[in-house]
Design brief:
Elements: H1 2-21, E1 27-31, H2 38-54, E2 58-62, H3 69-76, E3 84-89, H4 90-99, H5 107-110, E4 111-121, E5 123-126, H6 135-144, E6 148-151, H7 157-169, E7 174-177, H8 181-190, E8 195-198, H9 200-209, E9 213-217, E10 243-251, H10 256-270, H11 273-280, E11 286-290, H12 292-312
Parallel strand pairs: 1-2, 1-3, 6-7
Antiparallel strand pairs: 3-10, 4-10, 4-11, 5-8, 5-9
InterPro entries: BUG, Bug_dom1
Organism: Rhodovarius crocodyli
Pfam family, one: TctC
């Protein structure tokens, strides 16, 4: 018992010291998506700013594929010392546990939120050869042919949106999975698939070039950047909200003091006026750099939202 009394204070004192010393060596930021998308670009912008502030390298490590499970699992099983972090989107945290039986980790237990970063509302985009300019026209086209869509795995936003839309309207869409959002968007541009779901960050240049067409946006109001594109609510499907969010996570046993230390650096990076003006605002990102505790509450609420959305899509949540 005397030994235990000596050890416990030592462990308690180690946590603040660990937080103050972070980062003691280069930090690896695992991104379970391929390079080139909006999340990857933001990860690199954050890494650059945190590295400059802390004088330690922050290296982005892209690990795409497997519905983001391998990359996410690498962080869930890493040492909880703040030197291996995860930057991912909502599907890794609140979709995979509902869609993938036997997931090798529990995101709510084995990962600790560092910071909720941004929220963005997605849009339905289609190859122009389809001829549709809105959701009613898309559904009319689907009555004469079996349309397909590009997704990036079970539980991804395209999978949920087109599943719910199909269940509501009695329409069947074929899912074509890709290794990430960027390949799904490029496949839509190339005509390999008819449509997908993405944000302005991924679709903007293709919309401007006329190689993609936006049919609807998933938010209460139209996007200022695309004022002529109707909302899903205007199309009669307001109960389906294809929003997505990005966040940074650490291994689940990471001490709260260390989470707060990392959060402070991430929040400072996200508050950079140049990043906001040149990247976040033009891409339609709403910044929510919530604290670790507030992030956990927001993520728990999103988990319940996804559970309900899956049931409306005729899917049986695993968790």
């Amino acid at each position: 018992m005397k030994v235990l009394r000596r050890v416990l204070p030592a462990i308690t004192l180690a946590h603040p010291a660990m937080a103050q010393a972070w980062p003691a060596r280069p930090v690896r930021l695992i991104v379970p998506y391929p390079p080139g998308g909006g999340l990857d670009a933001l990860a690199r912008a954050i890494a650059e700013r945190v590295s400059a502030a802390t004088h330690q390298a922050v290296v982005v490590d892209n690990r795409p594929g497997g519905s983001t499970v391998p990359g996410t699992d690498a962080v869930a099983k890493a040492a909880p010392d703040g030197h291996t972090l995860l930057m991912t989107a909502d599907n890794s945290i609140t979709s995979n546990p509902l869609m993938i039986p036997g997931l090798p980790h529990d995101p709510m237990r084995d990962l600790a939120p560092v910071s909720f970063l941004i929220e963005t509302h997605q849009m339905v985009v289609a190859n122009p050869r389809l001829g549709a300019r809105d959701i009613p026209a898309l559904l009319a086209a689907a009555r004469g042919q079996r349309l397909n869509y590009g997704s990036y795995g079970q539980g991804s936003q395209p999978h949920l949106l087109f599943g719910a839309l199909g269940a509501q309207t009695g329409t069947e869409f074929t899912e074509i999975p890709y290794r990430g959002l960027t390949p799904a968007v490029l496949a839509t541009v190339a005509g390999e698939v008819d449509m997908t779901l993405c944000g302005i960050a991924s679709a903007g240049e293709h919309l401007a070039a006329g190689t993609l067409r936006a049919l609807a946006v998933g938010r209460a109001q139209r996007l200022p950047q695309l004022p002529d594109v109707p909302t899903l609510a205007e199309s009669g499907h307001g109960d389906v909200d294809p929003r997505t969010w990005f966040g940074i996570f650490a291994p689940g046993a990471t001490p709260p003091e260390l989470l707060n230390r990392i959060h402070a650096q991430v929040a400072a990076a996200m508050a950079d006026p140049a990043l906001i003006a040149r990247f976040l605002t033009p891409n339609g990102y709403t910044v929510h750099t919530a604290t670790p505790a507030a992030s956990r509450e927001m993520i728990a609420a999103d988990l319940e939202y996804k559970r309900g959305l899956m049931r409306r899509a005729g899917l049986n949540p695993a968790g």
